[in-house]
Amino acid sequence: xxxxxxxxxxxxxxxxxxxxxxxxxxxxxxxxxxxxxxxxxxxxxxxxxxxxxxxxxxxxxxxxxxxxxxxxxxxxxxxxxxxxxxxxxxxxxxxxxxxxxxxxxxxxxxxxxxxxxxxxxxxxxxxxxxxxxxxxxxxxxxxxxxxxxxxxxxxxxxxxxxxxxxxxxxxxxxxxxxxxxxxxxxxxxxxxxxxxxxxxxxxxxxxxxxxxxxxxxxxxxxxxxxxxxxxxxxxxxxx
Amino acid sequence: xxxxxxxxxxxxxxxxxxxxxxxxxxxxxxxxxxxxxxxxxxxxxxxxxxxxxxxxxxxxxxxxxxxxxxxxxxxxxxxxxxxxxxxxxxxxxxxxxxxxxxxxxxxxxxxxxxxxxxxxxxxxxxxxxxxxxxxxxxxxxxxxxxxxxxxxxxxxxxxxxxxxxxxxxxxxxxxxxxxxxxxxxxxxxxxxxxxxxxxxxxxxxxxxxxxxxxxxxxxxxxxxxxxxxxxxxxxxxxxxxxxxxxxxxxxxxxxxxxxxxxxxxxxxxxxxxxxxxxxxxxxxxxxxxxxxxxxxxxxxxxxxxxxxxxxxxxxxxxxxxxxxxxxxxxxxxxxxxxxxxxxxxxxxxxxxxxxxxxxxxxxxxxxxxxxxxxxxxxxxxxxxxxxxxxxxxxxxxxxxxxxxxxxxxxx
Lengths: 239, 411
Fold this sequence. Notes:
The complex is a heterodimer.
Chain A: E1 5-16, E2 19-31, E3 36-40, H1 47-54, E4 62-67, E5 70-71, H2 77-87, E6 88-91, H3 103-112, H4 118-131, H5 147-159, E7 165-169, H6 177-194, E8 197-201, H7 205-208, E9 213-218, E10 221-227
Chain B: H1 2-18, H2 20-56, E1 62-67, E2 71-72, E3 75-76, H3 87-96, E4 100-115, E5 118-127, H4 129-134, E6 139-142, H5 147-151, E7 156-159, H6 161-167, E8 178-181, E9 184-192, E10 208-211, H7 212-220, E11 230-235, H8 241-255, E12 266-270, H9 271-314, H10 316-324, H11 329-366, H12 374-400, H13 404-409
Parallel strand pairs in B: 5-10, 7-9
Antiparallel strand pairs in B: 1-11, 1-12, 2-3, 4-5, 4-8, 4-11, 6-9, 7-10, 8-9
Helix pairs in contact in B: 1-11, 2-9, 2-11, 2-12, 9-11, 9-12, 11-12
């Protein structure tokens, strides 16, 4: 079976005016299905760039990135959008819910672009909200929910398409300790019980401690890569 | 796809409902533009129809021939002052021009009419019986006089509604009554059906018809027997009018022995000519209205574009999120285009309501006839749709071309 993520000698070079910024310098990385990986690194280390490439929001300047066997490096913007819709769920630091739109409709959003019928969209979104413990709050607006609850809506939105990869970029960065713990437990459960591959970007050690593998990025390269938790061999993603 | 479109329309409506003030102000240009088009075209159509109806009262396919002007040592008289047209001209025209279905003639003068102790000064028209059919006169009671009446110079009269109103008691039957014109007694044998105003605004019902011969011999005291005030002809087909007019000109020129370099001593007008003058006026008006409406719709469209550009900026992050969860360019594009079109369509609908109301109110208050045509409503509606589509394209394209990473990072 293919690894879920394969990065081979990935470079990302930005041009800012006359200056060239090397955000990634020949980074290589392999992540198997079912893993729970924390990516750490100081700001400017290139971890955000890496996340954008892994999430198919961006493409490498040089090198190869394969997601689930698909070469993402030479896809067109709309094809990347399709991959994001089919394979990837995003959880952001600032939740990024659509304002004045109910929890249910926020969770529906990815399905909206799949062209499912409204009925199916609603049913699947309601089920996803149930999985993150938000039953009964389907019709609440983001402003009526606490930070932790908002982040759970965002997780439901990421889950609703049954993605092969869940990317969480500082998911607890805007939350208090208790909410942070709740969110991390939900992610942990999703990984353990449903075998969803999770890549987590964080700079908090206690958040990173939930992951089973810790990759540290520095100057656009992998500085260290170690397994921090013994865990059963990866459970293949159902279906 | 259809679920997508429906949900996008619902979302657009919700966003509009949320920013009612802003949406309302944005739509104002479209509302005013569409309302102006509909109200003005309705009023214009109404006026045009009224003018056409007035022209139709002239009769069907009518040609009018006036005598030329007199000229005494270079001083010219008014039109029709010459006595160049005669009864024999009219008879000869009918004989020589097969296109003419009929010809008639008339001569008029304003005189005092007396009935009982009332009097009225009205135009007395001495006419040939054919004149009545050419000009489409019909009767509310009684009937026309005949060729025999003409030949015998009978003292019979046909009177219009205005004359009836001024000489007779309400409910009194004029037919059978004897009226006096210049002290000559006449039997009223017919009451004419009303025609209303002419295209020139004259009261066509203020009229008395008597046989031409009677008028000549017993009323007008004409010195030049046989001269007429005007001649009339009619054709069966409206298309024949210009040809018939040209033939009349040729016949009259040869009868009057006019040399090639000399001007006509008569003037020919067909019903089509008269209609054209009126149509020209209303066309100028229509063009002006369209210019005003176009400017208004243009301004409205720019308003929509402006507000959408603001909206795209405000919702950059939302666009980023949508792209992150898999929205393709066309999805984002559609979303903003649908928002633009919803704005312009709602504006268009409001404009239609306002325009129709405005037209009805004009009829109600000013009493002008208005005609609201479905075509104009359809046109205005599709125009507002096109405006929305056109002015929505730029903002929608701008939104669709956002880079998802930058959009997500936007504060």
